[in-house]
Design goal:
The protein has helices spanning 2-5, 21-35, 59-62, 83-87, and strands spanning 11-16, 38-43, 48-53, 63-68. It is an alpha+beta fold and 112 residues long. The chain has one domain. It has a 4-stranded mixed beta sheet. Helix 2 links the parallel strand 1 (11-16) and strand 2. 20% of the residues are buried.
């Protein structure tokens, strides 16, 4: 599914109602790499584990946010500051290419 949809979207949002937070954390990490895009997992607040990852080259900015389960409502917002640079991440010859991870093997990102 990830390989089929990576050329059709730039943000992948997954609504979840899952107690298995570790699995969903790992799923978000894997999907942001394989789909080469922003992946958001929005889990129920009772269980926590909501997170967002995008394919940045620096590991310390790869995780956009991660929330943990709490007995109260919580909301997380994120904003893509430079949408042009985000959309140009597929062009590895671009000036900002060093900001993004290299696309996964076997992907034809130049045709996008």
């Amino acid at each position: 599914m990830a390989a089929d949809l990576r050329h059709l979207s730039d943000v992948w949002a997954v609504p979840a109602l899952n107690k298995d937070v570790k699995t969903f954390d790992q799923m978000a990490l894997a999907l942001h790499y394989h789909m080469f895009q922003l992946v958001i997992v929005a889990n129920n607040g009772e269980y926590g584990g909501s997170n967002a990852y995008w394919p940045r080259s620096d590991p310390h900015i790869r995780q956009v946010f991660h929330t943990y389960g709490q007995p109260q409502a919580s909301i997380a917002f994120l904003e893509i500051d430079d949408i042009g640079a985000f959309l140009a991440r597929h062009d590895m010859s671009a000036v900002s290419a060093e900001d993004w991870k290299h696309p996964p093997a076997g992907s034809n990102m130049a045709s996008l």
